[in-house]
UniProtKB/TrEMBL annotation:
Record EC number: 6.1.1.21
Species assigned in the record: Tumebacillus lacus
Similarity-based family: Belongs to the class-II aminoacyl-tRNA synthetase family.
Subcellular location: Cytoplasm
Entry protein name: Histidine--tRNA ligase
Enzyme class: ligase
Keywords of the record: Aminoacyl-tRNA synthetase, ATP-binding, Cytoplasm, Ligase, Nucleotide-binding, Protein biosynthesis
InterPro entries listed in its UniProt record: aa-tRNA-synth_II (IPR006195), aa-tRNA-synth_II/BPL/LPL (IPR045864), Anticodon-bd (IPR004154), Anticodon-bd_dom_sf (IPR036621), His-tRNA-ligase (IPR015807), HisRS-like_core (IPR041715), HisRS/HisZ (IPR004516), HisRS_anticodon (IPR033656)
HAMAP family: His_tRNA_synth
Catalytic activity: tRNA(His) + L-histidine + ATP = L-histidyl-tRNA(His) + AMP + diphosphate + H(+)
Subunit annotation: Homodimer.
GN (gene name): hisS
Length: 416
């Protein structure tokens, strides 16, 4: 019996993988220009890292982690996101002792046990950026500008950038009381989860997907209207920087992100009603995972969601496909000679291939066409004896005879 891939995972096949590579290469290139360096952390971490980092009351920790015990009876978890892992690596490798800010990016798989649907998978991929060590709102704006530059460079338009401030712990303590006071009369009507959230983390109630809870929180006061002065100033400065960068945004005072570590700045980028990425500041997280006090800000995009958005917006990235050269051979001696020629082509930088199944000339030409070869080199036993080959330009149909010794340089100079 055939064994299928696990639910919520995807095979990324040739034909699609080129789009992935395009998105990933664009991410790397934009990061290079913003002087953001790559970091690679393990796919699994100690479970406690996410419990502490992402937060015990979050859906991720409560319901969505792939947690297992290894043979040494340690509890490990496939990473559900990258931020906690990057702050762990930042702390463990003492990157805080190096000049600030440390600007880091990652691209890789993440794992969440969610109900699979379009744009929601159990193994998905994120491109994320984390900037650690500086609490300047100019950095918040730069990180957001990087995110928007990436999206524009992969070809997306008409995106909605929403920003908010979820406050520092000072603002939150104060706001939690205001929120509890507002919700006390309707506490019993909230869903069970929200009744627990009421005591533990009432802000999470604002993010509840249950309709009754949504209705009951409709008129709740905004965090944004109850920020302590330093937070209000940070938010105001962020808006001014974004204005000066020419980055368009909408303030959404209802936005709460699904992870516990955010402080002050929070943002999301939405395309056709679906969130393709989000992030924010997390000034307490490094301490939370055992490091020194160290501010941070970052974001992550779902690569799958970026690709879905490209489809929706009918953007076809300009991805070079097809071969430079397809080698067609006729006769036994010619067939043998093609292997060495092919190697010579490939070493010189040409994308080259040939038929391996001993097909007829017509079938080989068809294969060349199917693989979008720009040139076909036809080599028969007679030509081989004369030291020449025929080169066909597949776009114009023109044919020329070229000496075998000059083939590579001829192809290189005509295939610019
Ligand atoms: P997040 O909002 O949980 O944030 O995830 C970021 C993005 O990952 C989402 O906007 C979405 O595009 C994608 N994503 C999340 N879950 C799934 C899924 N099950 N299937 C497909 N795509 C998914 C974070 O993960 C934070 N670490 C972002 C961050 C970085 N904040 C600060 N720095």
């Amino acid at each position: 019996m055939l064994i299928n891939r696990p639910r919520g995972t995807n095979d990324i096949l040739p034909g699609d993988v080129e789009k992935w590579q395009f998105v990933e290469e664009t991410a790397r290139e934009v990061c290079r220009r913003f002087n953001v360096k790559e970091i690679r952390t393990p796919i699994f971490e100690h479970t406690e890292l996410f419990q502490r980092g992402v937060g015990d009351t979050t859906d991720i920790v409560q319901k969505e982690m792939y947690t297992f015990e290894d043979r040494g009876e340690r509890s490990l978890t496939l990473r559900p996101e990258g931020t906690a892992a990057v702050t762990r690596a930042y702390t463990e490798n003492k990157l805080y002792a190096q000049p600030a800010p440390q600007k880091l990016f990652y691209i890789g798989p993440m794992f969440r046990y969610e109900r699979p649907q379009s744009g929601r998978y159990r193994q998905f991929h994120q491109f994320g950026v984390e900037v650690l060590g500086v609490n300047d709102p100019a950095v918040d704006a730069e990180v957001i500008a990087l995110a928007m530059t990436f999206l524009h460079e992969i070809g997306l338009q008409d995106l909605s950038l929403e920003i908010n401030s979820v406050g520092s712990p000072d603002s939150r303590t104060h706001y939690r009381d205001i929120l509890r006071e507002h919700l006390t009369p309707v506490k019993e009507q909230l869903c069970k989860d929200c009744q627990t959230r009421f005591d533990k983390n009432p802000m999470r109630i604002l993010d509840c997907k249950v309709d009754t809870c949504k209705g009951l929180t409709q008129d709740a006061p905004y965090m944004l209207d109850h920020l302590v002065e330093a937070d209000a100033e940070h938010f105001k400065a962020l808006c001014e920087y974004l204005d000066s960068f020419g980055v368009e945004y909408k303030v959404n005072p209802r936005m709460v992100r699904g992870l516990d570590y955010y402080t002050q700045t929070a943002f999301e980028i939405i395309e056709s009603g679906s969130t393709i990425g989000g992030g924010g500041r997390y000034n307490g997280l490094v301490e939370q995972v055992g490091g020194p006090e160290s501010p941070g800000i970052g974001f992550a995009f779902g690569v799958e969601r970026c690709l879905i958005a490209l489809n929706t917006q009918q953007v076809t990235p300009d991805i070079p496909t097809g071969l430079d050269v397809f080698l067609v051979s006729l006769g036994e001696a010619a067939q043998k000679a093609t292997s060495a020629l092919l190697q010579e082509f490939r070493i010189s930088g040409l994308v080259a291939d040939k038929d391996y199944l001993g097909k007829s000339m017509k079938a080989q030409m068809k294969a060349a066409d199917r693989q979008q070869a720009r040139r076909v080199v036809i080599l028969g036993d007679d030509e081989l004896a004369q030291g020449v080959a025929n080169v066909k330009d597949m776009a114009t149909g023109e044919q020329s005879t070229v000496g075998i010794d000059e083939l590579t340089s001829h192809l290189l100079s005509t295939l610019e």
